[in-house]
Amino acid sequence: MKVLLSEDDIRKAVRKVAGDLSRDLSQKRPILVCVLKGAFLFFADLVRELDFPFEVEFVRAASYGSGTKTSGRVELLLAPQMSLLGRHVVIVEDLVDSGFTLQALRRTMQDLGPASVRIATLLDKEGRREVEVPVDYVGVKMRCGFVVGYGTDCAERYRGLPAMFELEPGEIDS
Ligand code: IMP
Ligand code: MG
């Protein structure tokens, strides 16, 4: 497997997103919403770079089953439990591909009456979008195939790898 983002690349990307969040949200006590499972390591590293007040919440979404292609149907397996009413919400994702997951999550959050909904992602996969979704904070934007490591998986494997790797490009369409 080819290294896509090294540990050092990831550290820089995390700091970039943390800096952007600090600039926009340090006075707003935002609720940072981690999208399980893939974003758990990014989320854990990101919050440790923030030096302003915030709260955390967790949601879980799935649409890929055990494959490497989206089904386009996003299932919300765990909904937010705390009130988002009148709050500034930041959805924290590992990566954006087709955009289906974030489109669905954004609508779910919007329905709960927040003051604002923003989106942060570690990796924006360039040229892959099938639906438009505004991504406010991006760690790294690049063209790539299916990615694993640093929280992200293929059929639940590889989540513990400290860097991000690209599986053979051939596997993307299989
Ligand atoms: P989208 O809905 O196609 O934008 O994909 C976003 C969601 O699917 C994210 O929550 C990811 O966890 C997962 N995902 C998309 N592409 C990949 C990938 O290359 N590797 C691992 N997970 C992915
Ligand atoms: Mg995910």
Task: Describe the overall structure.
This protein has helices at residues 7-25, 40-47, 100-110; strands at 2-5, 31-36, 55-62, 75-78, 88-96, 116-125, 137-142, 147-148, 164-166. The protein has 174 residues and is α/β, with parallel strands linked by helices. The protein has a single domain (2-144), classed as Rossmann fold. A six-stranded mixed β-sheet has the order 4-3-2-5-6-7, with helices on both faces. Helix 1 crosses helix 2 (40-47). It is globular. The chain starts with a strand and ends in an 8-residue tail after the last strand. It binds inosinic acid and magnesium ion. Residues 35, 38, 63-64, 70, 93-101, 146-148, 152-153 line the site of inosinic acid.
Give a nutshell description of this structure.
The chain has 174 residues and is of the alpha/beta class.
Number of E-state strands: 9
How many helical elements? 3
The hetero molecules present are: inosinic acid, magnesium ion
Supply the CATH class: Alpha Beta
Write down the Rg: 15 Å
Give the biggest beta sheet.
6 strands, mixed
Strand content: 25-35%
- Coarse morphology: globular
Arithmetic mean pLDDT: 94
Outline the fold blueprint.
Elements lengths: L1 E4 L1 H19 L5 E6 L3 H8 L7 E8 L12 E4 L9 E9 L3 H11 L5 E10 L11 E6 L4 E2 L15 E3 L8
Parallel strand pairs: 2-3, 2-5, 5-6, 6-7
Antiparallel strand pairs: 1-9, 3-4, 8-9
Helix pairs in contact: 1-2
Salient structural properties:
174 residues, alpha/beta, Rossmann fold, 3-stranded antiparallel beta sheet, 3 helices, binds inosinic acid, binds magnesium ion
